[in-house]
Amino acid sequence: MSAGTGRAPRSAPDWREVARAYDDGAAGYDARHDDRAATRTRTRRIDQLLIRATRGARRVLEIGVGTGRLLAQLDAPVRIGVDVSAQMLALAARRGLTVVRADGHALPFADASLDAIVSGKGSMRYLDPERALAEARRVVRPGGVIALHLYGGATWSPRGAARQVMRAETVTEAVTEAVTVTEAVTVTEAVTVTETETVAAAAAAPMRLWQPASTDALRATIGAARLTITALHRLRSIRIWPYLLTIPQPLDAGAPVQLWSHVVAVLRRDPT
Ligand SMILES: C[S@@+](CC[C@H](N)C(=O)[O-])C[C@H]1O[C@@H](n2cnc3c(N)ncnc32)[C@H](O)[C@@H]1O
């Protein structure tokens, strides 16, 4: 089963590896995510959805808080951020936020101790969805909100489709080079385009990230975590202004391919 479906038991990337990468990139993080009109516009629109979803909550936690650029925009009286990267947390602390170095799979908070949880810029993609959602559900109070931004796993575009075909050809060559002549003949003959693409994706992305491959896959993961979806905002990046389009639900439901590249999922732990 693919990484995007979220149903099969799966593991998250090693948090130490992720922390190291973010420690190294912490200094330039905010500037890097605010340097182009397209990035800035998308970030603001997505942030607004998350901020709106958690409005009125008193005690808010961000999982994978990073530099705190999102959490600092919330006006909750209690704002706590957890992250595995010490360097990112140091920047969040400078913004006056309460920070704790912790893995999102093991939150150091009592049951039902928070009113809302937020997670911006796809931080949750580094977590195992089943374990992370169960942990988020545990610490949020009954009736509390969990608002997450995630990236889509396999957005369709004409340009992307063309690139996939070209990439498949490249990988077939790479596989051929890497094995002995006899094996190479077998591999080349046996490999269909789909299988070749799988090899390409595995080689390019060794980390298993939670990037749902469809709305149905996302719904299944959330349902299994016993959380209720109150809103699903499906959004698609485009190159020209306005840089982000809303994909209406009927279009998403009828599409044979995934049209959205971002989703903001607003979830609720049932009141009882
Ligand atoms: C792309 S940044 C997003 C930061 C912030 N949410 C924002 O909106 O700007 C992802 C963050 O998730 C953190 N992260 C990754 N894996 C984590 C884990 N297992 N537990 C907690 N934080 C994690 C990273 O260290 C990084 O700071």
Structural class: alpha/beta
**Secondary structure tally, helices:** 10
In the CATH hierarchy, what is the architecture of the largest domain at level 2? 3-Layer(aba) Sandwich
Helix content: 40-55%
| Average pLDDT figure | 83
The biggest sheet, with number of strands, parallel, antiparallel or mixed sense and barrel status, is:
8 strands, mixed
Biggest sheet: strand arrangement: 3-2-1-4-5-8-6-7
How many strand units? 8
Number of domains: 2
Strand content: 15-25%
Within CATH, the superfamily of the largest domain carries the name Vaccinia Virus protein VP39
Q: Radius of gyration, rounded?
A: 20 Å
Spans where pLDDT lies below 50 across 5 or more residues: 1-9, 168-205
Helix/strand order, N-terminal first: HHHEEHEEHEHHHHEEHE
CATH class of the largest domain: Alpha Beta
Overall, the morphology is globular
The molecules bound to the chains, other than polymers, are: S-adenosylmethionine
Observed structural traits:
272 residues; globular; 8 strands; binds S-adenosylmethionine; single chain; 2 domains; alpha/beta; Rossmann fold; eight-stranded mixed beta sheet; 10 helices; disordered N terminus
Give a written overview of the molecule:
The protein has an 8-stranded mixed sheet, sandwiched between helices. α6 packs antiparallel against α7 (about 180-190). With about 270 residues, the chain is α/β, with parallel strands linked by helices. It has helices at about 15-25, 30, 35-55, 85-95, 130-140, 160-180, 180-190, 195-205, 215-225, 250-255; strands at about 60-65, 80-85, 100, 115-120, 140-150, 230-235, 245, 260-270. A hairpin with a 6-residue loop joins β6 and β7. The protein folds into 2 domains: about 15-155 and about 210-270, Rossmann fold (3-Layer(aba) Sandwich), CATH 3.40.50.150; about 160-205, no CATH class. Bound molecules: S-adenosylmethionine.
